[in-house]
Amino acid sequence: MKPLLLGLSMAAVLAACATATSPTGRKQYVGAVSQAQLDQLGAQEFAKAKQQMQLSNDPRQNAYVRCVVDDLTRELPPGWQAQWETALFVDDSPNAFALPGGKVGVNTGIFSVARNQDQLAAVIAHEIGHVVSRHHDERITRQQGTNTLLGIGSAILGSTYGSGAGNAAGQIGGAAAQTFYLLPNSREQESEADIVGQKLAAEAGFDPRQAVNLWQNMIAAGGSRPPQWLSTHPDPQSRIAELSGRAAALVPVYEQARASGHTPKCG
């Protein structure tokens, strides 16, 4: 009966989710929260970041970031083109993020590795790629489903072998889920955001080949990183190889965009 109950519970969890197709054609489980709720969560987290971090008052750098974001979001599919809000944070770490609800945050440290507008566009387009690919929705849905199943599994084991076994199973299962289910999904999402972002940058008139240079700069900047199988990001060298392979196919897209008048002049 217990395997049957677990199987039925798994089916119920999956049934509560909706399926969607990502921009690259990948099947996704989404729907744990509505788009309106996601947008609200994004707005809340963005407001929190602006309260907790120092905002840059450099008008030139702010205009630079705003220009790149505007040129990129102009090329998004219908429904994603609403005015995007940007914030530039005084922080030496080379990082950026985008959130549901049209929010983009960039650290000033990104300028140390993104050395021209095309490289900055590669960073920001990648982050926007997470949003338009519904990765936040997917992560929340998967996390909630995993937590539900772990709770059910612990309860079943606890009823058979005692609470100690149930608690241990929950802890071990949580570690296994994090390593073999949630983190690999993050790497999958990172690779997908690379694909979506590189294409978006090319369509906006930014050179897609500069994404390769960006990651070469990232590697040159150094920094320790965990093994690839325990990382939420693809291995840098693998990432560069994939970006380089796609860049050649995207050059005609970039050239057509430039011929059509998409000629970013951000800095």
UniProtKB/TrEMBL annotation:
One of its GO terms (biological process) is proteolysis. It holds the Pfam family Peptidase_M48. InterPro entries: Mito/Outer_Membr_Metalloprot, Peptidase_M48. Belongs to the peptidase M48 family. The keyword Zinc applies. Residues 1-18 form the signal peptide. Binds 1 zinc ion per subunit. Residues 59-246 form the Peptidase M48 domain. The keyword Magnesium does not apply. GO terms for molecular function: peptidase activity. This is Zn-dependent protease. It comes from the Bacteria. Its cofactor is Zn(2+). Keywords: Hydrolase, Metal-binding, Metalloprotease, Protease, Signal, Zinc.
